[in-house]
Amino acid sequence: MAMMRLRREDPRVVGAFRLHRRLGAGGMGVVYLGADKRGQRVALKVIRPELAEDQEFRSRFAREVSAARRIRGGCTARLVAADLEAERPWFATQYVPGPSLHDKVAEHGVLSAAETASMGAALAEGLVAVHEAGVVHRDLKPSNILLSPKGPRIIDFGIAWATGASTLTHVGTAVGSPGFLAPEQVRGAAVTGATDVFAFGATLAYAATGDSPFGQGSSEVMLYRVVHEEPDLGGVPDALAPLVYACLAKDPETRPSTVQLSERLSEIAAREARGIGAPRREGLPKAAGPRPERPVGRRAEEYAQQPTQRRTPPRLDGPAPGTGGQPKSAGRPAGSRPAPRTPAPTVPATRAAVRTNASRRPAPTAPGRRLMRQRLAVFVIVTLLVAVFIAAVQGCHRFTHAAGPSGAARTAAPAQHAPGASRG
């Protein structure tokens, strides 16, 4: 994790912690690296002054800190201390050494299928503990996941939400990061554990491809894609694509639970580590092909402002997804410029799809038959040659055997005469 020197306006001591470096800054405040008298290092976040003056924010902040105390297990950075009544509220969590998932992918490239599945299994198990504590993170994304030597850790519960709490954000605003927000967050609906599952699926896609499954663009365009378009999973490994697609379902009720994700990803990680690969399940959608060209500039703004139309994707065990066409614009004023239409994606042309289709295509039989005929012809020829050779050898043997006795008789006659002459 990158560290920066303290600035002139930064505090040097907060509570019982002495601050040493800046770790980063966000919409809520600044995060510092600090340590107590025993040398325990912490990541300490100090809330911005303008937020500290907002009593509504203080109420939410106090509730979130209380909820974070209930989280058990090693999946998150443990809450160490907090002061909710200070002039500028702050809280300190255990410092986690290691880069974020975002920095890891940016510097060293995407993770393999086995690495992504292994990391995902640990994160899913962590989300089980978070949700059991009655907390919804609401901003799960690659920069909020630290890859420590002991496994991934979820950090920054600054906008986390206690289950059942009323919404304190203003109407029409979405708290979180475009591309990793769930559709219900964009619409301003209630958030549940399924909201984190959506962000979890987008995070897995990022780990495997280095990009959000909804591409890049302005916040308006990104939020429109999250609500209306199917994700682009063209670069996600085949073993993970169906599970990631299920996490990114528009309807929260159809997304898998964190327990199911943990079990399934553990199986995939074990298979990939052994080089087996996860078996494809019938009825699960394959990774989507390349995303069709989208408008930019002014056309993109018009594209994002079109009326919403809810669409429910298939379940985990349902049929493959449709083309994900753009909803028609209803009630457009006369004379207004029609919104650009997104062409339906063509047949997937990714290398993964080509490999999969090639593996399923039956092997051609003509070359095999021709090779069998050739081998049969060679066998017959060799057999005939061997038979001719054996016949020739046998013929020569008969000839030699027939000529042998007569020659012996001719040579034996003088030998018999000689003894008889000497006796006479």
From TrEMBL:
Residue span, Protein kinase domain: 17-268
Composition skew (Basic and acidic residues), residue ranges: 270-284, 291-302
Residues where ATP binds: 45
GO MF: kinase activity
Highest taxon listed in the record's lineage: Bacteria
Pfam families: Pkinase
Annotated InterPro entries: Kinase-like_dom_sf, Prot_kinase_dom, Protein_kinase_ATP_BS, Ser/Thr_kinase_AS
Keywords: ATP-binding, Kinase, Membrane, Nucleotide-binding, Transferase, Transmembrane, Transmembrane helix
Chain intervals for the UniProt region annotation (Disordered): 270-367, 403-424
SMART domains documented for this protein: S_TKc (SM00220)
Ranges annotated as biased composition (Low complexity): 329-339, 347-356
Residues spanning the membrane: 376-393
Protein name, per record: Protein kinase
Organism the protein comes from: Actinacidiphila epipremni
Upper taxonomic lineage: Bacteria, Bacillati, Actinomycetota, Actinomycetes, Kitasatosporales
